[in-house]
Specification:
The protein is mainly alpha-helical. The chain has a domain at 50-255: Up-down Bundle (f41 fragment of flagellin, N-terminal domain), CATH 1.20.1330. The protein is built from 8 helices and 4 strands; from the N terminus they run H-H-H-E-E-E-E-H-H-H-H-H. It has a two-stranded antiparallel ribbon with strand order 1-2. A two-stranded antiparallel sheet has the order 3-4. Strand 3 (157-158) and strand 4 (167-168) form a beta hairpin. The longest helix has 55 residues, at 41-95. The two termini are 22 Å apart.
Length: 296
């Protein structure tokens, strides 16, 4: 073997040793053993698949959070509606008492009008700038001041699983408020709340008795809507629990595929540093400089 070829072999061995040392240092500094696909094509493919699944799960989690917040807003509005309707019912019962004068029933009717306005405000509750009871219709409000519904009957849906199913995350105005603001079967299409005010002003016992029945029916619809919202919220919470567990498993798998065993890596680094220094020392003793090296 000529001195030249010997020098080339020694240099190549030193460079390979240095490359291994640098690779180990890079793994320790980054905490990952996969710096490029060539480090392990199989593990790289697995890591890419896991990352893709993780991103998909994060998107589903965002959809679940959005749906839960939207349903939570609707639930609060329906709870407030139930409270206001209870007060309207108290007014109807009080107005049915013959001891009340016309002036007193008129004051009750005025309060009923204010409660109707408050209920319209509740029915126009917004989430992220959009009315929660307007379905998928892009409108400013779900109801106008006359009580006419401006939305549609298609609830907002979100895909919260990897399957084809979608979950409704809203409830539409007609499903929640039924005949409170408008009733096609009533004279002039007047809603229950408007008929309450009219009956209180007239003092008609028969009319008051009928609006009380209609009011109770509408209140039952509101409570049913609350149950529907609650069941949908529970489903989202269940899906969220399963999704969170899946994300945790993926993160663990990804850490196993991409991560390093720090204790082992530090041991390897120490051994490689020792081996490299020993190789440098041995090379310096074996490869002696010639007169030509000094003349260059």
């Amino acid at each position: 073997m000529t001195p030249s070829s010997q020098n080339q072999q020694v240099t190549a061995a030193l460079q390979a040793s240095l490359a291994r040392l640098q690779a180990t240092q890079d793994q320790i500094s980054s905490g990952r053993r996969l710096g490029k696909p060539s480090d392990s094509p199989t593990d790289t493919a697995t890591a890419m698949s896991l990352r893709s699944d993780h991103q998909r799960s994060e998107q589903l989690d965002r959809a679940i959070d959005d749906g839960a917040a939207r349903l939570g807003t609707a639930d609060q509005a329906l709870m407030q509606t139930d409270t206001l309707l209870l007060r309207v019912r108290q007014l109807v019962l009080a107005g049915s008492n013959d001891t009340n004068t016309a002036a007193e029933r008129s004051a009750m009717a005025a309060e009923a009008d204010q409660l109707r306005s408050s209920l319209l405000d509740v029915a126009n509750t917004r989430y992220l700038g959009r009315p929660v009871f307007a379905g998928t219709q892009d409108v400013e409000n779900a109801y106008d001041t006359s009580g006419a519904y401006l939305g549609n009957t298609t609830p907002v849906e979100r895909r919260v699983t990897t399957g084809p199913d979608r979950v409704a995350v809203s409830i539409t105005g007609p499903d929640a408020f039924s005949t409170l603001f408008a009733d096609a079967s009533a004279p002039g299409g007047a809603g229950v709340l408007q008929r309450v005010s009219d009956a209180l002003r007239s003092g008609d016992r028969a009319a008051l008795g009928q609006v009380l029945k209609d009011l109770d029916a509408a209140s039952d619809t509101v409570r049913t809507s609350q149950s529907i919202v609650g069941s949908r919220t529970s489903r989202l919470e269940s899906v969220k629990t399963v999704s969170s567990a899946a994300v945790t498993r993926m993160e663990t798998q990804l850490s196993t595929v991409e991560g390093i065993d720090l204790a082992k890596a530090l041991t390897d680094l120490s051994l490689q540093q020792t081996a490299y220094q020993a190789a440098l020392s041995a090379t310096a003793k074996v490869v002696q400089p010639s007169i030509l090296d000094f003349l260059r």
